[in-house]
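Weekly modeling sync, notes
Attendees: S.R. (lead), two postdocs, one rotation student

Agenda item 3: backlog of single-chain predictions. S.R. asked that every request posted to the team notebook include the full sequence so nobody has to chase files. The rotation student volunteered to paste the first one in as an example of the format we agreed on. Action items at the bottom.

Example entry:
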Amino acid sequence: MGTFVQLVVDGLSTGSVYAAIALAIVLVHQATGLINFAQGGMAVLAVYIAWWLTTKDVPLILAILVSIAFSIAFGAVVERFLMRRFERGDPDTAVVVTIGLLTLITGVAGWLWTYNNQQFPSLFSLDTVNFLGVSVSQRSLGTTAVIIVVMVLLQALFVGTKLGLALRAVANNPESAAFSGLPVGRLLMVGWGLAAALGAVAGALVAPQLTLTPGMLDNALVYALAAVILGGLTSPVGVVVAAWLIGVLENLAAVYVSFIGYDLKVAVPFILIFVVLIVRPQGLFGRKTVVRV
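Predicted structure, as returned to the notebook:
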């Protein structure tokens, strides 16, 4: 029983890493209707800026705040001068543009800071807490707590605020939103800026658990996209629950399902996606899209 509980706890911790990136993807989609494959690269760029500032003896908290401010501006600039040219066109073209942006950001980060592994300091202590035979690091607890707070705030933003409703309106139908008097361009910039800021927070939480490299979040992005598909693009709560579910199930499958083991546990989220897309295509917590013809 102790092993089972430990696997669940470790899975929740790993799932929180996936959830951090997944929330940023949901935020961009809710604000613009697009899937941003460059989200991981934008987050890594923000983390590199925070890391560079810490090497100049800037306090960690201040360095992260500066990186968040940079991310807001960078996200707004990307939307205004790059993505706006493609947002009204074919969605597939916009997706390809975000993939190209990911490649560009990764290359720039490698050129500026090399591809060597760097150690990013942690916001939380590495000490462990023992409870009923289960060991949990304070860093994992802190990361999970931050993700829960962000999830609640994001859900409240889109459901209970005028800004959130305006962002959703622009994403669903920008033409009607413009006729209603909403500043569509500024709202799109705000959406991208907020998503980039959320990515910076996610990167700062994830980097201490990995090693800082330009491709640090490539694998996490795959799992985050799986969580988005499972949880539903319209539900911040759903993607967090889905990310936790993926983290827990892949841990349990690796230990208790002999033919999967640790080598094939990467297949677990894709099996889940296959099952969910057959049973509930909009995701576990997503809303059905009704189109009148």
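Discussion: group reviewed the output briefly. The two ends are 54 Å apart (CA to CA).
Action items: rotation student to repeat for the remaining queue; S.R. to check formatting next week.
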